[in-house]
Amino acid sequence: MEDDPVINQAVTDRLTAEGYVVAQAWDGPTAVAAHAEHAPDVLVLDVMLPGFDGLEVCRRVQATRPVPVLMLTARDDEADVLVGLGVGADDYLTKPFRMRELVARVGVLLRRVERAAELAAAPAAARPVLELGDLRVDVGARRTWRAGTEVRLTPTEFDLLVCLAADPGTVVTRERLLAEVWGWSDAAGTRTVDSHVKGLRAKVGADRVRTAHGVGYALEPGAAS
């Protein structure tokens, strides 16, 4: 969903060439309608759209049928990024971007959807539930609670939480988080990790996610409520 016809068509052509089926939209209302009609596995969504912007599109589609969202933004301002993550976006790219990187990001989001479906289909005994103080994480159902209240996380935030929860109290490096959550083999996206951790911290509590400056993050075990 992109209002610039050149960028819209370029993204469409590249994703189509990669074997994806693509539905196009050029404004906010059309984007919401296309989501309802086609039920896509992932959205590539520009922030600046006529009608209403991409942030509002993200709010509306996530309220009806959650879907991974890759946001395209003209600014690399941290506040803008955090707003996008706060309304349900999973990842973002700053313009101008390389088509190769966009395709890679889409692929990561789709693999996450596949892994979630595999876990959901597994026997209940194979779907772990993590209890960390007053934080409860149902890995198979992809649901999280803090002190008995459900916390709505984006798919990326959930995978980030599960990665940190696998070894509570232990610092996980940004590079390892990039490899395990995003599937990236280099450290070029460490700012992406930082942005998502801020979103996760805002939802599960600043007391639960500890920063090891210059290294990475740890999930504090916490005390039972």
TrEMBL record:
GO MF: phosphorelay response regulator activity; transcription cis-regulatory region binding
Entry keyword set: DNA-binding, Phosphoprotein, Transcription, Transcription regulation
Binding region for DNA: 127-221
Biological processes per GO annotation: regulation of DNA-templated transcription
Record-annotated Response regulatory domain positions: 1-110
PANTHER family xrefs: DNA-BINDING DUAL TRANSCRIPTIONAL REGULATOR OMPR (PTHR48111:SF4), REGULATOR OF RPOS (PTHR48111)
The name this protein goes by in its record: DNA-binding response OmpR family regulator
